[in-house]
Amino acid sequence: MRGGPSAFAMEYVWEEVTLTFSRVPMFPFFDIAHYLVSVMTLRQQLGAVAVAWQNPLVSWFSAMMHCFGGGILSAILLGEAPVKFLENNTNVLLASSIWYIVFYCPYDIVSECYRFPPVKLLAAGMKEVTRTWKIVGGITHASSNYTDAWMVLVAVGWARAAGGNVIVSLEQFLRGTWKPETSKLLKMSYPVKISLVGAVLFTLQHSGTLPMEKHSLMFCYTFFIVVTKIAMMLTESESSPLTPFEIMLGRMLFGFWQNDPSSGPCKSSFNGTGTRSKPYSIHVEAKRRHTKKTE
Amino acid sequence: MRGGPSAFAMEYVWEEVTLTFSRVPMFPFFDIAHYLVSVMTLRQQLGAVAVAWQNPLVSWFSAMMHCFGGGILSAILLGEAPVKFLENNTNVLLASSIWYIVFYCPYDIVSECYRFPPVKLLAAGMKEVTRTWKIVGGITHASSNYTDAWMVLVAVGWARAAGGNVIVSLEQFLRGTWKPETSKLLKMSYPVKISLVGAVLFTLQHSGTLPMEKHSLMFCYTFFIVVTKIAMMLTESESSPLTPFEIMLGRMLFGFWQNDPSSGPCKSSFNGTGTRSKPYSIHVEAKRRHTKKTE
Amino acid sequence: MRGGPSAFAMEYVWEEVTLTFSRVPMFPFFDIAHYLVSVMTLRQQLGAVAVAWQNPLVSWFSAMMHCFGGGILSAILLGEAPVKFLENNTNVLLASSIWYIVFYCPYDIVSECYRFPPVKLLAAGMKEVTRTWKIVGGITHASSNYTDAWMVLVAVGWARAAGGNVIVSLEQFLRGTWKPETSKLLKMSYPVKISLVGAVLFTLQHSGTLPMEKHSLMFCYTFFIVVTKIAMMLTESESSPLTPFEIMLGRMLFGFWQNDPSSGPCKSSFNGTGTRSKPYSIHVEAKRRHTKKTE
Predict the structure, then answer these.
(1) Which residues of B touch C (CB under 8 A)?
(2) C256–B106 C-beta distance less than 8 A
(3) Hey, which chains touch A, using 3+ CB pairs under 8 Å?
(4) Which portions of the sequence form the region Disordered (chains A, B, C) (predicted)?
(5) Measured at the alpha carbon of residue C142, what is the angle toward residues C141 and C148, in degrees to the nearest 5?
(6) Chain C residues with CB-CB distance to B under 8 A?
(7) pLDDT for C99-124, tens place per residue?
(8) What is the pLDDT of residue A274?
């Protein structure tokens, strides 16, 4: 009987902590962090400050795309009104205020503060927390209409969490400031990948396949993405913690004939951006040379 | 008591006139003017006549985008069917007939007639009248679903009145005949700006903030845009009557630190296309030089 | 009374055959043929195999666009959820399996088999059969909401049958692997044209204008498109059987003033891609020369 009560207490504490965590409201602080990180991402783009001074309305529109892109994309995917995000006056005004102080504050006080590492880390960590809430929100919303269609749930959860990247790319493409070569569609970035993993996990949990409570999964997933994000920012490394899993999955699904010399392109192992294999690098280098020549 | 009955009569006449005006049906004549101006805009584009002779279906599709673009964009924003405009058989057939006679009439009779200034002025003036009706229609339609979301009302009213420009740009972009440099998204044209002002005014009226009757506002706004449009066409000037307000608003919102030498890009005053400030012109010239070199 | 019973028997047989034909389920075999042809079209594109090995998820996404593009476009046109196709788990898994074996099968067994002409002809013929079912399905689906709007029915029927081409072009355009010059939007391909004809015919039948039973029309239309497709594949000719009708229609609608020397561009007869008239070829050649120079 030794350790029984203690294990029970541990479990109780864990239950309490994760339940409390899953009830944390996003509204004022986490949303502010998300808007701040999104608008700062916009500001760090080439020419964004000049656009803000020449045509504030376009800059405001871009900022809203950065802040609410995920919601817009998931609304489009579900055939709902893309302007629905404007219904929430408070959040739009909050995001607009942050856009205003980031771009027009005298002496760039906000940008200077944002450069201070602890502020940046805190904001980035809090933004990652909103990612979990978005995935859960997207899946819950989609499941009211598409109960059994687990692929729809994954798509909507993913779109709400990572769709901002897609919408922003599209918007920049239409404005002419983005070239498809640098496409995030083709080279999936780490946030896009981790959002997909999250959407799959929460969909499995929703359909009852994953033997885990929702609040526990929320806690674990959030813990993982926050720690990973902060670790990646501190070490400034580009290597994603998903790479080993990707390689394993790639070998399982597509790599049976890896060592078969007859099957031409199979020599390159399965990898997206994580680990650049030789053929890909050669291709990129050839492109760079070509670009240099034309310049 | 002097002037009392006269003032009362004046007010009565004003009430009568504006009420009658607000009940003018758009259907045959104003719609024809709108379709005529839209299709003539298409015809004056480079290569449009050649496309019409080589592939009439594509030309017809472009003409429909020019005529019904605003309705399509507002339907997309509200998550409704973009093909809804095809439901109104009469209007589509009317627009198609105008497209047909504009492009295929022997000896280009219609285009020649359109060059005659009074015809052009009348058509342009009548087209501006439809703008008011579109803003009001968009706001009324959106308010049935989104009562309190005033930002949604502004967005839908604006999209219905000025969305044609956006849809047409997108369509030309996809066809490869439009470069993002000349984007109307970035350099908002005068019709786009005045539609935004109208959408804001009618939304304020709708929510009861503006102490004015709907029909009076319709009369005043229409009067203003028609007179402005005709004046701009007669004087062939590009300067918009909104420029002073824009500069004032810009100074109020973004220009506190105008004369502060430390805040770099703030030197350029707030202005879109209206008044080209120095930094912008320099940028444009630099671009032109660069383009010449690469050629 | 001679011939009476025989004619009756013939009619009965015809009725039986067409009715039985119209009840053939698409699910396993015809759908497989459609997915196979669509994925093979993707595979034959330049660089598609390399993308499949470097980033399987993007390749899978492209394959789904090729297989379900028509359904996605018609859903967008009707303001429904574009992800609705994911609801049908079985079909998505079937299409995914075909994508998997086409791209990753050792020794490219599937691609090699597909090169064998009878297989190719059979698959192409069966794919054409699904076209009829898609047009009928689209019109039936749209008519539940838009009963009298025959233009909406045509648009949705056409979009479901030929929309894959449009969605795929858009997707390639956004990925940067497609130039608008080769646009299928401007030069309508034969499948796009024949789908339009089919959509018009079935809409006429639906509204009761065409004195023909639905199942007879399905049989005749399918017979026509299958025979035409196989004949075109066997003779490897590019000339479409619709060209004479197009020229006739063009003369009727746009060609009254053909021989009138005063009406400049009218000299070129009405023709899309079918018959390349002189002015168009000259334009194309001039373009080619220009391209060479810039290279």
Answers:
(1) 49-51, 53-58, 75, 79-84, 86-87, 89, 92, 104, 106-108, 174-176
(2) yes
(3) B, C
(4) 267-295
(5) 135
(6) 76-79, 145-146, 148-152, 155-156, 170, 173, 179-181, 183, 185-188, 250, 253-254, 256-257, 260, 262-263, 265-266, 268, 270-272, 279-280, 283
(7) 999 998 888 888 888 888 899 999 99
(8) 36
Q: State mean pLDDT over C69-87.
A: 91
Q: How far apart are CA C96 and CA B157, in angstroms?
A: 43
pLDDT in tens, B220-242: 999 999 999 999 888 887 777 88
For residues C70-93, give the mean pLDDT.
91
For B132-150, what is the mean pLDDT? 91
Predicted local confidence at residue A140, as pLDDT: 92
Task: Judge whether residue C83 has pLDDT over 60.
Answer: yes
Give the long-range contacts of residues C53-58, CB within 8 A, separation 24 or more.
C53/A254, C53/A265, C53/A266, C53/A268, C53/A270, C54/A268, C54/A271, C54/A272, C54/A277, C54/A280, C55/A186, C55/A187, C55/A188, C55/A272, C56/A250, C56/A253, C56/A254, C56/A270, C57/A188, C57/A272, C58/A185, C58/A186, C58/A188, C58/C175
* Choice between C277 and C129, residue whose per-residue pLDDT is larger: C129
Instruction: Indicate yes or no: CB of A86 within 8 angstroms of CB of B155.
Output: yes
Indicate yes or no: CB of B175 within 8 angstroms of CB of C183: yes
Please indicate whether residue C182 or residue B101 has the higher confidence score (pLDDT).
B101
Q: What's the whole-number average pLDDT of chain B? A: 80
| Residue C30, SS3 per DSSP | helix
**pLDDT band of B246, cuts 50, 70, 90:** confident
More confident: B42 or A4: B42
Q: What is the pLDDT of residue C181?
A: 56
Give the C-alpha distances (Å, rounded to integers) separating A157 from A133, C69, C80, C92.
Answer: 10, 22, 18, 19
For A58, the token pair is: 């376009």
Interatomic CA distance for residues A108 and B116, integer angstroms = 55
Q: How high is the pLDDT of residue B235? A: 87
Please count the residue pairs, one from chain A and one from chain B, whose beta carbons lie less than 8 angstroms apart: 85
Please report the pLDDT score of residue C285 as a whole number. Answer: 40
| Residues of chain A positioned with their CB less than 8 A from the CB of B263 | 106-108
> Which chain A residues are Cβ-neighbours of B186 within 8 angstroms?
51, 55, 58, 175
Q: How far is B223 from chain A (nearest CA, A)?
A: 26
Tell me the chain A residues in contact with residue B272 when contact means C-beta distances shorter than 8 Å: 54-55, 57
* Among the listed residues C96, C99, C196, the one whose alpha carbon sits nearest the alpha carbon of residue C153: C196
Mind telling me how many Å the CA of A66 is from chain C's nearest CA?
Answer: 19
Query: Is the CB of C56 less than 8 angstroms away from the CB of A253?
Result: yes
Cβ–Cβ below 8 Å for B58 and C150: no
The 3-state DSSP class for residue C146 equals coil
CB contact under 8 A, B186 and A81: no
Backbone Cα Rg of chain A = 22
Contacts of C15 (CB under 8 A, 6+ apart): none
CA distance A29 to A91: 11
Looking up tokens 């120079």 gives: C293
Residue ranges in chain A modelled with pLDDT below 70: 1-4, 175-187, 255-295
Hey, what amino acid is at C286? A
Q: What is the interface pTM, i.e. ipTM, of the complex? A: 0.77
Candidate from B145, B150, B265 with C-beta closest to A50 = B265
Partner residue facing C151 (CB), from B56, B92, B106: B92
Within its chain, how far is the Cα of A136 from the centroid?
A: 14
Q: What is the pLDDT of residue B108?
A: 83
**B294, B291, B265: which is closest to B280 by C-alpha?**
B265
